[in-house]
Amino acid sequence: MTTLNISRGPEFSRIAGLGVARGENAVPNEDIIEPINSSDEWIRKMTGIATRVRANADTSVIDLAESASRDALAAAGIDGGDVDAVILSTITYPHMTPGGAPVLADRLGSTGAAFDISAACAGYCYGIGQADALVRSGSARNVLVVGAEKMSDFVDPADRTISYLLGDAAGAVVISASDEPRIGPTVWGSDGSGAQLIRQTSSWLEVRDGEAEAFPTLYQEGPSVFKWASFKMAPVALQAIEAAGVTPDDITAFIPHQANIRIIDQMVKQIGLPKHVAVGRDIVDSGNTSAASIPLATERLIRDGKAASGDLALQIGFGAGLVYAAQVVVLP
Ligand SMILES: CC(C)(COP(=O)(O)OP(=O)(O)OC[C@H]1O[C@@H](n2cnc3c(N)ncnc32)[C@H](O)[C@@H]1OP(=O)(O)O)[C@@H](O)C(=O)NCCC(=O)NCCS
Question: Ligand 1: which atom is nearest the Cα of residue 46?
C-alpha cells in the first residue's frame, strides 16, 4: 500500500485576536412592546433584556462581519492576506448562494478558503471547533471565525415568541498556531428531533408556491426550548471542562450563548461554577444576537475588567437545529 508523505500541523491552536461590531442602535423594550402586547417589566423579568442592539437599515450582515473582522485581524497583528480560511457562522445572510464568507474574505483581502456555517446560536463554537482542527491539521495557518447576524431582517415585530429577543451584531476571532494548548476539545452534537422548535416560518418552496402567509421570519416554541437549554446544556458544558483536563474550579469566565438570563443563571447553578467565575450577561444590553452573542459577551467581560487575557473561559452555544457546541478556551 502506498501511503502519503506529509508533515503534521502544529500541536495546538489559540485565539490570537478578537473583534466585535454591535448594531448602531440600542432599542429599548418600550419601542417594541406594542405589536406583541408585552411590557418592559415582563421582558426584563422573563429574559433579562433591557435593550437589544439593532443595525441601521443600510448596514448589512456582511458590513457587521467586516467591521468585527478588521478589529480581530488588527488585534492578532495580521492582514487579510494572511488568512487561509474564513468561516462565517450566520443564519441571516440573505442569499442561499453564494455563501457570505467569500464576499467577506474578498473585502478583507483574503483569497483563502471561505464557507458559511448554519448552526444558529451554536455557530460560533462550531466555527472555533472547525478552525482549531484546520490549524492543527496544517490546512491553514490563520483562520478567521466570524459569528454575524442581522436578525432584524428576519423578525416579525408582531411575533411574540421570539422577535423581541433578537439583535444585530458580529463577533470575530483569529485562530492561529500555539506552543501551548489554548483551545480545548470541542464537545458538540445535535438533536434534530427538535428541528421544529426554532425555525423559519415557511420554506422557500412554500413561498414559491404561494403557500406562505408572509415573508418567512423566525418562530420558536419558547417553553420547550427553555427546558432543553436549561437542563440539557449543563452536562455538555461539564463534558467540555473534563475534555480540557480541568475542573469547574479552574474556570475563570463562563460565556454561554446569550439566550435568556434565566437560562444562564440555571446553567451556572447546574455546572456548579464557583462564585468567583465571571459570567457573561451581555444579553441585558445587546439581546440575543445568535452566532455573535458569545464573542460579544467575551468582549464585554474584558472591557468591563471582569475577565482578562489568559483567563480560562468556558463557552457554550446552543440553538436551532437543535445543535450545540462547547469548549474551554484561553482568552486572547
Ligand atoms: C420566550 C420565553 C421568555 C417565554 O417565557 P415562558 O415563561 O416560557 O412563556 P410562555 O410561552 O409559557 O407564556 C407564559 C405567559 O407569558 C405570556 N407571554 C408569552 N410571550 C409573551 C410576551 N412576549 N410578552 C408578554 N407576555 C408573553 C403568555 O401569554 C403566558 O401568559 P398566561 O400565563 O397568562 O397564559 C421563554 O420560553 C424562553 O426564554 N425560552 C427560550 C428562548 C430562547 O432562548 N430562544 C433562543 C434559543 S437559542
Answer: 3
